[in-house]
Amino acid sequence: MNLSMEEVFAITNRSHRIVALTGAGISVESGIPPFRGKGGLWETMNPMEFAHIRSFRKDPARVWDILLRTMKDTLDKARPNPAHEALFQLEQTGRLQGIITQNIDGLHQAAGNRCVVEFHGSFAKIRCTKCDRTLGIQQLSLTQLPPLCACGGVLRPDCVFFGENIPEETMIKARELTLSCDLMLVVGTSAEVWPAAELPHMAKAAGARIIEINPEPTSLTLHSDGLLQGQAGRLLPKLLAMMT
Ligand code: NAD
């Protein structure tokens, strides 16, 4: 069901424990292409080639090469857009309890949000597959691929690849936020990637309202309380302006 801004405002205004679940779509207006939807990476390449753990284990140098060519520059240049900024301001009002993001771009933290669960990890961090040491991607020499740790182990991005489980601590934090919210704003996600896609259903079963902000309906839309249709960078600041 499509909702008007006034209807969403009325629901949001009654809510005091809001949680945002965000996906690639919220960063589109920062210049980072999503996987699915219009202009998504899936139109030109198969993300399974660089985003599945099987591909990384088989040929880490190739996956690193694709990630560096397709993502690193884009992520380095990206800055928070008005949608990220609106969520920061919503946290400042005390009504946004936290953000669960599927994104690996760090833009919610760059906007200033303090409570951010990075459900799929972060591209800014690197982890050794042998000794588990972590370091920042900026500390890394990327002249030789795959990059190696001092211990000789292959270094990997500290992201959750397709085919891997969500770390337990992350899952616990995400569940806590999900089960305690009275409204979940689901922004810029196709709700196709599990277990992240399960979180709005969990929130709803625990009594929360679910509102999506997305230019297109998704597989969640039938189960949500409504869709505010359009770009997050335009709609979230408008919603916030009505609230403050
Ligand atoms: P997705 O690519 O599957 O879906 C993107 C969704 O965003 C679509 O439903 C699309 O209609 C919507 N969208 C497009 N432009 C929008 C806008 N301006 N405002 C609001 N919504 C918009 O993304 P997903 O559901 O997050 O799942 C893909 C997986 O790939 C996730 O793990 C995701 O984090 C990862 N990924 C991350 C980034 C990033 O960190 N920025 C980029 C690409 C993919």
From TrEMBL:
It comes from the Bacteria. Gene3D superfamilies: SIR2/SIRT2 'Small Domain, TPP-binding domain. Residues 1-244 form the Deacetylase sirtuin-type domain. Keywords: Metal-binding, NAD, Transferase, Zinc. The keyword NAD applies. It is an enzyme of class 2 (transferase). The active site is at H120. CDD domains: SIR2-fam (cd01407). Its EC number is 2.3.1.286. Zn(2+) binds at C128, C131, C149, C151. InterPro entries: DHS-like_NAD/FAD-binding_dom, NAD-dep_sirtuin_deacylases, Sirtuin, Sirtuin_cat_small_dom_sf, Ssirtuin_cat_dom. Coiled coil: none annotated. PANTHER family: NAD-DEPENDENT PROTEIN DEACYLASE SIRTUIN-5, MITOCHONDRIAL-RELATED. This is protein acetyllysine N-acetyltransferase. It comes from Desulfobotulus pelophilus. The lineage of its organism: Bacteria, Pseudomonadati, Thermodesulfobacteriota, Desulfobacteria, Desulfobacterales.
